[in-house]
Amino acid sequence: MAPQPLRIAMIGTRGVPATYGGFETAVEEVGRRLAARGHTVTVYCRSRKGDPRPERYAGMQLVYFPAARRRSLETLSHTGLSVAHVLRHRGHDVALVFNAANSVFLPLLRLRQVPTATHVDGLEWRRGKWGPAGKKYYRSAESMAVRWSDALIADAKGIATYYIDEFGATTEQIAYGAPILRHSQMTRLEELGCEPRAYHLVVARFEPENHVDLAIEGYLRSSATHPLVVVGSTPYPAEYDTRVRELAARSDRVRLIGGVWDQDLLDVLYANSLTYVHGHSVGGTNPSLLRAMGAAAPVVAYDVSFNRDVLGPAGLLFRDADGLAAHLVAAEANSEEFAARGQVLQQRAASEYTWDAVAEQYEQLSLKLANGESQRGRFDGRRRSASQWD
């Protein structure tokens, strides 16, 4: 028997098609599957003058609102307009709200009796781009999410553990999916002047918690001869961006190629890399990491619980430049061994991180919320006095 069709609002991201990050990828992959199962899915998208504004995409209805062009206000300004639209038009059975920062709007949805699940993401207050006020707000927003959400969604075991340790609050643990990429699909590598299995790869925004500088420093300390290809940039001018570029300028073997928005070309880079160096440290289940695994890329990741949980025993870890340098040298000396590690990671991605299973979990959660199940009121949002996370 098919589940009852629901009217589901997806709020708090840049929207679809996904061109930016993990939230957007999740909205696109989950939303299109929920729509295919007969649910009415409305995605709230950010708009800029001159951008195309299709009314539908992959079965989802799209609604557009602008966002303030300031980092501190971008998310909140757009979500505020999106929530106002939900309140005016009513008719939604469930709202899926992405980013704990948006929890300030949850009481408004509650007034319209729209049950909400909040995807809380990673430890945003640890990100280097936020000053003291931003960090304080994000910590407050986590408390509001715990107190006012009907359900909390964590995309990694480490995030679920954090909410238990900090608030005594339970979460629905729903990871992301990993696209499985086959080498038979891979062409175009020559466009970037790279040779298969003859380069190390970094894909990340230039932000301190992503450790792009550490990746370059580790490479420079090594005796590796294959180039280090760095895909990424920063959306905002920052001292960190300058540091990354100054480090890269020390060797012509470090190639900063900027952002690559052509997903097919990016997949080529993942699937043909000798190693993929993943420095992300504060998020949960990272989509770039899953994409690398799905492409059978041998992964060398920064040693934090989120990355350990996703990779399992086939992943390699580093905590400092010297540790990374040793892995890069080993990869060049033992390329077949590293390729075998990549194959194990791909098998892990194919068995444990599928978008069909993720969408099923979102559907089941939405049905429970629409039928009145809620944890709101069970947790007061107060932090416990002793914590390992501060």
TrEMBL record:
One of its GO terms (molecular function) is glycosyltransferase activity. It comes from the Bacteria. SUPFAM superfamilies: UDP-Glycosyltransferase/glycogen phosphorylase (SSF53756). InterPro entries: Glyco_trans_4-like_N. Residues 21-174 form the Glycosyltransferase subfamily 4-like N-terminal domain. Pfam families: Glyco_trans_1_4, Glyco_trans_4_4. Keywords: Glycosyltransferase, Transferase. The keyword Translocase does not apply. This is Glycosyltransferase family 1 protein. The lineage of its organism: Bacteria, Bacillati, Actinomycetota, Actinomycetes, Micrococcales.
